């Protein structure tokens, strides 16, 4: 805009007008000083735009998240069978854990500590509602801040989780294990995020995302696709809003509510896919 004004003043300087050459020169000088003051701001704005663009480019696309969710359910039965045939093989265990945890985090956006603290008892007490199952995990590292976590998953993934639970006695470290997922020494399986990343690649998807990357992607896509009230529900479910008042004064979400949140996350991913396709088609036209 400043450049346009300068061009106009230069044009006026060459042609007769009510503005005297002295006044035009004065305006040109003020515009020049204004440009110098704006220079640093323009540079900073460009840098910020590039930073945001680079950050968005690294966010996992919704198409990939949906594809991963579908793949986990498709691959789990065969991988569970392989683990049952050879429970001493750690690579088979890692594949199953990667698929199970990956499927859960991709539809809930929960932190790793939730899955580290999940127990067989938590799974057994899951609340069923219209094809969804809500697992309440009361013991995890952020429970003092966020309260008990609600992990809502579909019936296929829940069945696979139950099947894995029945295999646990045949796994190394079972005699010392206190949680659903454990390593060969019976302790928490802290590397489960690595196994999720490996299975992501085996599903034919690009990159090796961490659990945090998946969590950020879900938060981003729901923020774009959902109205404010539903975004707030998703944030609370993902423990994004650490307000003490909500911990003590808001009642725990029911199975019906957690199912709604799970479906909202899936809807937001599908809505993001449609929006990206629409933009791509308009660009091609």
Can you characterise this structure?
There is one protein chain. This protein is mainly α. The protein folds into two domains: 2-57; 62-284, hpI Integrase, Chain A (Orthogonal Bundle), CATH 1.10.443. It has 13 helices and three strands. It has helices at residues 2-14, 21-57, 62-85, 90-108, 112-117, 120-124, 143-146, 155-167, 192-202, 211-225, 228-237, 244-249, 255-284; strands spanning 127-129, 132-137, 149-154. A three-stranded antiparallel beta sheet has the order 1-2-3. A hairpin with a 2-residue loop joins strand 1 (127-129) and strand 2. Helix 4 (90-108) runs antiparallel to helix 8 and helix 11 packs across helix 13 (255-284). Mean pLDDT is 83; it is low at 242-251.
